[in-house]
Amino acid sequence: MITHVLDDYYLAITFLISLGLQGALFLISFSLQTDKLTDLGGSANFFLLAIFTLCAGGTYHTRNIVASVLVLLWSTRLGGFLFFRVLKTGKDGRFDEMRSKFFSFMGFWAFQLFWVWTVSLPLTILNSPNVSDPSRGGGNPAFGTARDIAGIIMFAIGFGIEAVGDQQKYLWKSSRPAKGEINDKGVWHFTRHPNFFGEIFLWWGMYTLCIEPAVAHATGLGARRALYGSVVGPIFISLLLFFVSGLPLAEKPTSKKYYLMSHGLHPESGRKWAEYKVLSIET
Fold this sequence. Notes:
Elements: H1 11-32, H2 38-57, H3 62-89, H4 102-119, H5 121-126, H6 129-132, H7 146-174, H8 194-210, H9 212-215, H10 221-229, H11 232-243, H12 247-263, H13 272-282
């Protein structure tokens, strides 16, 4: 049975679900002065929105099920890995400056809410009544088109690169490499940030999979516009990782570390900065 909640695209209810979850986790984390729930909270939010919109939509078309299951698998893998990692390390150094500051810490959770809600838009809108309910002008073109297959392949490639990259980096750090050693093994040999690349690529794959009802004109004009408009999801995650919380936060301290190792007050190795510059050009 299809459930209509607040609006026919599930935009309001998914925002409220995200607000409730992120707000509750923020209060718990701030009260306990812990950052062990930060990344887990984001992954859990993706999981919750995927399962809610699929079940509330009530139209278990193959495309809806496949897209939802892919997000469930991705969020479970990523959330489980990040939670395991922070339990092993004891804390997340990104939050050392804000963990005890109410509004600064709250800002992270507010941004995480917006991140999850926005990036989930392709799946949220696909599962919504206006897209999947025939009585509301929705439709379900036969599953298995070129876009469906391309979307699944893109998602699988992104998922695999991100998962392998995470595992390889964790094992490399666990091996206690020598100070200044550069991680250029496995997928890290081809790109300095396989996890970021994988996440961006898989969300473009998700959008490609979800867009088929609009491209096939199987829905009304409003639903087609909503599906096309959900491209803000993969665009947002691309811009976020390229210019805000991904590359900038990873590149700046790494570059500084290798520069100081070669040109600081007490240089340890004159080659490290040159080696890092070569890596930057090649990857």
